[in-house]
Protein: Sec-independent protein translocase protein TatB
Organism: Streptomyces narbonensis
Amino acid sequence: MFSDIGALELVALVVLAVLVFGPDKLPKVIQDVSRFIRKVRDFSDSAKEDIRSELGPEFKDFEFEDLNPKTFLRKQMEGNEDLRELKELRGTFDLKKEMNEVADAVHNRESAPATVNGSAAGTPDLLKKQDKQAKTDTVERPPYDSDAT
């Protein structure tokens, strides 16, 4: 429950509790808090047992932690044979190559199957695109409208 509290933080909490409640009332406050926590745990356990008894014997080994979506998916995927097949399929599929082929088809270019340093060899250089754009920007600049700014 308190696994993430360090020793210095625990000492600070004790000192703060002594300052707030005083040394005379502190033992009674600790007893009251521990009694409250015990009652909450007992209430929670009895509610879980009531739910299990209402669900019937087929849910005898039901755990409420299974309702967490991450835990549920982890348990479902552990022994699943289809998952192994998906991992094998993922290993044969190259998303970058497929996306480059689609982009080439859209722009009516020939696709380049060879790659250089992880990028397709037939893709245009980004610097060349910027240079072309800069040249066209100097030629076809829109008129300046001082009232619009």
